[in-house]
Design brief:
43% strand; 2 helices; 19 strands; mainly beta; three-stranded antiparallel sheet
Length: 305
């Protein structure tokens, strides 16, 4: 049954990890848990060098008449890469207004000369097989700086037993930023891939920025109600924009689900509307596990100017 849940996952900030006991009581009060421990994964090679980025991901909003194949051709990327970057979007039923993450921009990073690339540590990597013989792979990136990280990307390569490359894709996080002193996974989907493949990770880009004009949202009253079988969790809470902040045109909340060993097992992004300074917006959504039972959930919020 576990594999039947897989297609329900995904897309996918002060960090506010939260977890509650399994129960049907609707008056549940949340309580905080410790941040999942950082673990390493066998058969994973992490390449520490972080080159300057030459291209950046960006968001595209679906217009009337757009098709998946035409967008892939327009942005000069493969349909597999576009699908991997947008696992929660069906190529055959894209609604006008839906947002797509375009993994490769045709324009160079204009701010590369003023922002500083940093070697953000990869603290864990894990892959989970899917019901359709694919492989979801996550690499958890930790921002150990006092500023936000932008333009984060990593190359995830699958290797056979002789360390020959089987497949390689660029992976991105669910948000455009990783806040200070917090972690978010980059992720990618490999179709028709053996679960026994070894994994190699190389951080491609991570730009340190203290952009003071970015709206500063925070999370309050976050609740993660884990289902009785541990394979999904209902999440809720509030995004609050301080009165001294600039207005936000959109807010995103990323929820990262971890198992009892602190490994990433699920990821989902919720997208909300505009918030004025001093205002708030409530969120409610579901995150599902791609593998073991969910033990805790960590939240990260981004307010978009």
């Amino acid at each position: 049954m576990r594999n039947l849940i897989l297609t329900c996952v995904f897309l996918l900030t002060a960090c506010a990890p939260a977890s509650i006991p399994n129960t049907s009581n609707n008056s549940i009060e949340p309580y905080l848990t410790v941040t999942p421990s950082l673990t390493s994964t066998p058969n994973v090679l992490v390449i520490a060098e972080t080159p300057l980025p030459t291209a950046t991901p960006f968001i595209y909003t679906i217009q009337s008449g757009d098709t998946f194949s035409e967008l892939a051709e327009q942005f000069k990327i493969s349909q597999d890469a576009l699908r991997a970057a947008n696992p929660d979007v069906s190529p055959n039923s894209m609604s006008v207004g839906t947002t797509l993450l375009i993994p490769d921009s045709s324009q160079p990073l204009s701010t590369a000369s003023t922002l500083t690339p940093v070697p953000a540590p990869v603290t864990q990597t894990v892959c989970h097989p899917s019901a359709d013989s694919g492989l979801w792979c996550f690499a958890l990136i930790h921002n150990d700086t006092s500023d936000v990280l932008e333009y984060v990307s990593a190359q995830i390569t699958l290797l056979d037993e002789n360390n020959n490359a089987l497949a390689s894709q660029t992976a991105f996080p669910p948000l455009d930023i990783i806040p200070a002193n917090s972690s978010l996974p980059v992720y990618v989907f490999f179709p028709n891939t053996s679960a026994s493949a070894n994994t190699q990770i190389q951080l491609l880009s991570a730009i340190q920025s203290n952009n003071s004009q970015r709206p500063s949202a925070s999370l309050h009253n976050t609740i993660a109600q884990i289902n009785w079988n541990g394979l999904s969790a209902h999440l809720s809470g509030q995004v609050i924009l301080p009165a001294e902040s600039t207005a936000a045109t959109q807010v995103w909340v990323a929820a990262v689900a971890y198992d009892k060993d602190g490994q990433v097992v699920g990821l989902k992004r919720w997208e909300g509307g505009a918030i004025q300074p001093g205002g708030n917006i409530s969120f409610s959504f579901l995150v599902s596990s791609l593998g073991p039972e969910i033990d805790s959930v960590e939240f990260v919020v981004e307010a978009r100017p």
